């Protein structure tokens, strides 16, 4: 390596590192995937991977994707819950990888929850 | 795509608790569960909580697991990694009584009061991967210095920050560099003192193991500032992991063109080499260290001339400690005002301490200057184990002194510690409780310096030996009060007349224990009694005939057959045969044996 541009290029490439290795603070949006046996059986893993990939691809700051156990509505799995700070939680059900990509684009980036995927209130 | 990072401590402490095996088992298990493409396992530097090693931290949740063994790996992978359920039984226990657990390391009392500058990247990056260091702004300070600053501006920045040498003496780093810059010689040297020899100190080792590139980068900056193209890192051979990672870091930095010829196309050259020390304590003294790098026997010589004028190979040289260098890059990157906003009036920034001895959270801590000893021992360190009482803390290792209870609230900085008869030292902090005999502690440190004296000057070689003989007399009960006065006189004589720092500071543990614990010395001398029950010659074991049931357990365990007595009758210890090993007392089920 012979120039500062090259040094900065490496820094750019590695820049997610410090975000990936700090605990989420209060201003962070949390996307939580139900990953109990029911969730995994219904196909939660491709959903989780799609979410992680999309967040990284768009280089979204202050967003973390994590997992949780059984949310309690096993027949609606895979379930994804989105917690945006100071907003009401949105629960998405029967998720797929394709739906996950849309949730990131519409809900996380444009702050416009995808109502058609959300659990229906009775 | 990586969705989770698992960091496992690869420092010396956790490595000796088999953290490398945990990493191997973890990789195997991740592969078996087909998670190896989503989860990245990194062997990183010291997290600080060495007492609870091996330590593992799992992100993004930041769950900190303690005492992880290979048997826990399967559960961690199938519960936490696959299903997102925290393995609570492995979390850090904050309060033993209430069993209160804390999930992330940053929420522990241990971390809350800490400010990490020198240790910023320890436990965050993979020390063997230069790109991870670059990813956390590594080598940006060097790039800034080489392209935007003159050497004078660099020195000025360091001076303004108020950084003082972290090796113990506390000489202003900027001033040291200025002297070396002023020496007109085409050949100058930059040296790093990584010969950390104090018993119980491991700050420098942890920096080199966890973040070797920050020292390399800072040395290149120092070279540019004083006008030098060659650096040497003098490190003890007893630090194999640090040596290995440092060598890899130097090789990588050369391969990436960050040291070597024409760094970043600026025309500046800087080369760096490692020199291994053979483990002599005196080689941590600057003149002896340079003599040792030259390949000669490691002996000190008088100053002046100071190294900044005539040092290594008789050329102008600067020598700084590892921790000092670890602060440099951050000062350049964040500015001197940022650094000087922390700390006390005359001591800026932070200091790393290695906590050891009778303390719950044995480990590595970095605190802003001005933090009190009480905060370090009781808040960060978690207090004294087994409900015992705090007696004193030793700072500065064999060159320092003890700090007793009445000074627990003294804000720690260079000048305050000297005022109370101790010194900052390199950062070893050994805590003593009521079971420690202060005369015995002084003897322990003096035995160390007597062993390590190079023998070149008489006050140190013979004086310390005589002082140790006095201490032996005290601990076996044959000393007189006159001996105590003679000891004090001898201490001052050695301090005033020794050639180098080793001899000049060797009597400090004796002087400070006499100053604060004179009553313990007097108890040994006048009453032939060791108040803490440590000095064997002054102890005797006794069986309480009322409590003794005559079970014969003590008799059977005594290695020298000093105990006599029939079954179901009170036993008796023959003081002439007894070697005071304490086995009888440890074995007695009725608490009938006591030591006095």
Largest interface: A-B, 34 and 35 residues
Biggest β-sheet description of chain B: 5 strands, mixed
Spatial order of the strands in the main sheet of chain B? 12-11-15-13-14
* Arithmetic mean of pLDDT of chain B: 93
Number of domains of chain B: 5
Number of strands of chain B: 19
CATH architecture of the largest domain in chain B: 3-Layer(aba) Sandwich
| Mean of pLDDT of chain A | 86
Report helical residue fraction of chain A.
Answer: 25-40%
Strand percentage of chain A lies at 15-25%
The domain tally of chain A reads 1
Radius of gyration of chain B: 27 Å
Total helix count of chain B? 24
What are the low-pLDDT stretches of chain A, counting only 5+ consecutive residues below 50? none
Structural class of chain B: alpha/beta
> Can you tell me the CATH architecture of chain A?
3-Layer(aba) Sandwich
Low-confidence stretches of chain B: none
CATH topology of the largest domain in chain B: Rossmann fold
CATH class type of the largest domain in chain B? Alpha Beta
* Helix-strand topology string of chain A: HHEHHEEEH
Q: State the fourth-level CATH superfamily of the largest domain in chain B.
A: NADH-ubiquinone oxidoreductase 51kDa subunit
């Amino acid at each position: 390596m012979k120039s500062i541009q090259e040094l900065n290029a490496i820094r750019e490439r590695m820049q997610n590192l410090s975000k990936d290795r700090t605990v989420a603070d209060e201003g962070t949006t949390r996307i939580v995937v139900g990953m109990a046996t029911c969730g995994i059986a219904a196909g939660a893993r491709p959903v989780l991977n799609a979410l992680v990939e999309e967040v990284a691809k768009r280089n979204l700051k202050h967003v973390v994707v994590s997992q949780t156990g059984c949310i309690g509505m096993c027949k609606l799995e895979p379930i994804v819950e989105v917690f945006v700070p100071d907003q009401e939680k949105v629960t998405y059900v029967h998720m797929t990888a394709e739906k996950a990509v849309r949730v990131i684009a519409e809900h996380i980036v444009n702050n416009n929850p995808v109502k058609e995927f959300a659990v229906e209130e009775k | 795509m990586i969705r989770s990072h698992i960091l496992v401590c690869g420092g010396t402490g956790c490595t000796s608790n088999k953290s490398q095996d945990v990493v191997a088992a973890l990789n195997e298990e991740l592969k078996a569960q087909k998670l190896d493409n989503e989860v990245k396992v990194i062997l990183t530097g010291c997290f600080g909580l060495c007492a609870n090693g091996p330590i593992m931290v799992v992100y993004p949740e930041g769950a900190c697991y303690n005492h992880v063994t290979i048997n826990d790996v399967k559960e961690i992978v199938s519960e936490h990694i696959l299903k997102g359920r925290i393995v609570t039984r492995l979390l850090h226990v904050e309060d033993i009584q209430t069993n209160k657990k804390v999930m992330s390391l940053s929420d522990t009392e241990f971390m809350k009061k800490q400010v990490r500058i020198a240790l910023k990247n320890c436990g965050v990056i993979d020390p063997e991967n230069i790109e991870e260091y670059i990813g956390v702004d590594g080598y940006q300070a060097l790039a800034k210095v080489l392209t935007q600053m003159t050497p004078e501006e660099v020195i000025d920045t360091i001076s303004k920050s108020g950084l003082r040498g972290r090796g113990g003496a506390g000489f202003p780093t900027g001033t040291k560099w200025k002297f070396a810059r002023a020496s007109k010689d085409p050949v100058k040297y930059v040296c790093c003192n990584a010969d950390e020899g104090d018993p119980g100190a491991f700050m420098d080792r942890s920096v080199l193991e966890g973040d070797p590139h920050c020292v390399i980068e800072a040395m290149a900056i120092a070279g540019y500032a004083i006008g030098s193209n060659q650096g040497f890192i003098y490190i003890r051979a007893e630090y194999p992991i640090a040596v290995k990672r440092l060598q890899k870091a130097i090789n990588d930095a050369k391969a990436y063109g960050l040291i070597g010829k024409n760094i970043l196309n600026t025309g500046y050259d800087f080369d760096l080499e490692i020199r291994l020390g053979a483990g002599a304590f005196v080689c941590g003294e600057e003149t002896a260290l340079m003599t040792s790098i030259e390949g000669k026997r490691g002996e000190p010589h008088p100053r002046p001339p100071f190294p900044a004028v005539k040092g290594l190979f008789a050329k102008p040289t600067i020598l700084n400690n590892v921790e000092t260098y670890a602060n440099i890059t951050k000062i350049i990157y964040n500015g001197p005002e940022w650094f000087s906003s922390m700390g006390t009036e005359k001591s800026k920034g932070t200091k790393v301490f290695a906590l050891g001895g009778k303390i719950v959270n044995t480990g590595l801590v970095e605190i802003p200057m001005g933090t009190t000893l009480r905060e370090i021992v009781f808040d960060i360190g978690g207090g004294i184990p087994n409900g015992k009482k705090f007696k004193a803390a030793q700072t500065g290792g064999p060159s320092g002194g003890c700090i007793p209870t009445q000074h627990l609230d003294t804000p720690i900085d260079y000048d305050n510690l000297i005022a109370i008869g101790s010194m900052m030292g390199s950062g070893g902090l050994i805590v003593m409780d009521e079971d420690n005999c202060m005369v015995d502690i002084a003897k322990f440190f003096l035995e160390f310096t007597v062993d390590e004296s190079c023998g070149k000057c008489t006050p140190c070689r013979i004086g310390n030996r005589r002082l140790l003989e006095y201490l032996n007399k005290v601990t076996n009960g044959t000393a007189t009060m006159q001996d105590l006065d003679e000891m004090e006189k001898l201490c001052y004589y050695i301090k005033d007349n020794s050639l180098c720092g080793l001899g000049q500071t060797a009597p400090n543990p004796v002087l400070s224990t006499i100053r604060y614990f004179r009553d313990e010395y007097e108890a040994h001398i006048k009453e032939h009694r060791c108040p803490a029950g440590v000095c064997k010659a002054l102890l005797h074991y006794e069986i309480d005939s009322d409590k003794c049931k005559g079970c014969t357990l003590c008799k059977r365990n005594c290695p020298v057959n000093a105990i006599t007595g029939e079954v179901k009758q009170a036993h008796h210890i023959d003081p002439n045969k007894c070697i005071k090993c304490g086995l009888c007392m440890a074995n007695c089920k009725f608490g009938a044996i006591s030591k006095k």
